[in-house]
Design a protein that fits this description.
Helix content: 10-25%
Strand order of the largest sheet: 3-4-7-6-8-12
Distance between the termini: 5 Å
Radius of gyration: 18 Å
Largest sheet: 6 strands, mixed
Number of domains: 1
CATH architecture: 4-Layer Sandwich
Structural class: alpha+beta
CATH topology: CNF1/YfiH-like putative cysteine hydrolases
Order of helices and strands: EHEEEEEEHHEEHEEHEHE
CATH superfamily: CNF1/YfiH-like putative cysteine hydrolases
Length: about 240
């Protein structure tokens, strides 16, 4: 059985701008609070299982892990075919993308990716799928879940960004709408990820659709914190595990 969940910022013990289910101490939160928050996530997913996390660097590297993994690597995606290993991705506007599939023998394979615009453009989702396929996943069994991220109406970008994404890719132009500000666009991050997944051959794609920027009561948002000149911004976690 595969279990996945897109946690919100609610349910933890952190305070201030990290209130309350913040999962990283790298931005100023108390390490003890973060540790307690991690234990809460584990209890909700699979009591006693290890929670594997990454040192996310906005790239496209995907690694293969097993049930002995405890030290975060510099990567933005990982895959495992071991049971009771929780994969956790941190976000605060970027898209958490969770994957599940079966081998011909019926064994579960799961994956998780941190897909901001840069990682998505570099191919982090495709790299995750490549690794799953190399480990025996059957393409037709792959399911993908794109979690809460910044929505198109909240994501204004400039001409340089537009050219970076659409250069040599006519299909990507459909992921942009004109913004009110001249020379600017609104970018559909989840739609862009979905388009690339479909190109890969994935048909079972589920999009959460909640806007991390707009829903301050539910989600941390780096862009919102920047616009509101807030000093503290936590990270929510998205998780998947094979039980």
């Amino acid at each position: 059985m595969i279990k996945h969940r897109f946690f919100t910022r609610k349910g933890g013990v952190s305070q201030g701008g990290f209130k309350s289910l913040n999962l990283t101490a790298l931005h100023g939160d108390d390490a003890d609070n973060v540790a307690r928050n991690k234990q809460y996530v584990i209890s909700e997913m699979a009591e006693g299982a290890p929670l594997a996390m990454l040192n996310q660097i906005h790239g496209a590297k995907c690694i293969d892990i097993d049930d002995t993994y405890f030290h975060p690597a510099d990567a933005d995606a990982f895959v495992t075919d071991h049971k009771k290993v929780i994969l956790g991705i941190l976000t605060a506007d970027c898209a958490p993308v969770l994957f599940s599939a079966k081998t011909h023998a019926g064994k579960d394979i799961i994956g998780a990716a941190h897909a901001g615009w840069r990682g998505a453009h570099l191919g982090v989702c495709e790299n995750t799928l490549d690794m799953m396929i190399n480990k025996g996943a059957v393409l037709s069994t792959v399911q993908v879940f794109i979690g809460p991220c910044i929505a198109q109406n909240s994501y204004e970008v400039d001409e340089r960004f537009y050219q970076t994404i659409t250069k040599d890719d006519e299909g990507a132009k459909g992921c942009f709408d004109a913004a009110l500000n001249k020379g600017h666009y609104q970018f559909d991050l989840s739609g862009y990820i979905e388009m690339r997944l479909k190109r890969y051959g994935i048909s079972n794609i589920n999009i959460d659709g909640r806007d991390t920027y707009a829903k301050k009561d539910l989600f941390f948002s780096y862009r919102r914190a920047t616009h509101e000149q807030e000093d503290e911004c936590g990270r929510q976690i998205s998780t998947i595990v094979s039980l």
